Structure formats: structure tokens, C-alpha cells
């Protein structure tokens, strides 16, 4: 069945960070665009929209390539060339 992925993101660095891509490894799901988080800030990323809130989540839904209960590796790419990886579970 279709599932949702949620990933909490926070810029724990001392400089502004710009997320340019989020990839769900092993699927065709990728978020691309530009999302900027100032130092210490959190942001909400959903689909192709970015809205700053007190909590950051990257949510993908409505895709038959995302299975509820399965785990996925998520890679977050920044403009600075950093890649952050986490394993998350679809709900």
C-alpha cells in the first residue's frame, strides 16, 4: 500500500544551509528545488513547497513505490556538497 515518509531536518551548523535535493534510495522518488535553512533553523519540506515552521519534515505520499511499514534510506544533498543520510520507516 502507499505510505508516507517523514524526515525531521534541522540545520545544526553555524552557517545557512541550502537543501537542493532529497532522494529516496531505491525508488524513483526525489524532491528537487531549493530550500534554505539559517543556522539553527528547522524547515518544513513537503512536495515542491518549503515553509519554515518549528518542525521540519520531508513527506512523500501517493506513490506506489513507497510501502507503508518498509524502511528507506533518505539522502539530503546541500549546495555546499554535503550529503546527509538517514534510514526512515514509511507510515
How many beta strands in the DSSP annotation?
A: 7
Shape: elongated
Terminal Cα span: 10 Å
Low-confidence regions: none
Mean pLDDT: 74
H and E order: EEEEEEE
Alpha-beta content class: mainly beta
Strand content: 35-45%
Number of helices: 0
Sequence of strands across the biggest β-sheet: 2-1-6-7
Domain count: the total is: 1
Radius of gyration: 13 Å
User: What summary fits the major beta sheet?
Assistant: 4 strands, antiparallel
Percent of residues in helices comes to under 10%
Describe the structure concisely for a colleague.
The protein is mainly beta and 91 residues long.
Task: Describe the fold and architecture.
The structure is a single chain. The chain is elongated and about 35 Å long. Helices cover 0% and strands 43% of the residues. The protein has 91 residues and is mainly β. It contains no helices and seven strands. It has one domain. Strand 6 and strand 7 form a beta hairpin. The strands form two sheets. The protein has a four-stranded antiparallel beta sheet, with no helix packed on it.
Amino acid at each position: 500500500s502507499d505510505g508516507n515518509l517523514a524526515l525531521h531536518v534541522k540545520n545544526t551548523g553555524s552557517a545557512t544551509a541550502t537543501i537542493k535535493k532529497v532522494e529516496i534510495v531505491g525508488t524513483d522518488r526525489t524532491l528537487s528545488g531549493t530550500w534554505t535553512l539559517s543556522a539553527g533553523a528547522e524547515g518544513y519540506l513537503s512536495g515542491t513547497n518549503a515553509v519554515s515552521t518549528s518542525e521540519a519534515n520531508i513527506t512523500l505520499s501517493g506513490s506506489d513505490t513507497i510501502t507503508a511499514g518498509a524502511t528507506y534510506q533518505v539522502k539530503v544533498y546541500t549546495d555546499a556538497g554535503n550529503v546527509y543520510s538517514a534510514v526512515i520507516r514509511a507510515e
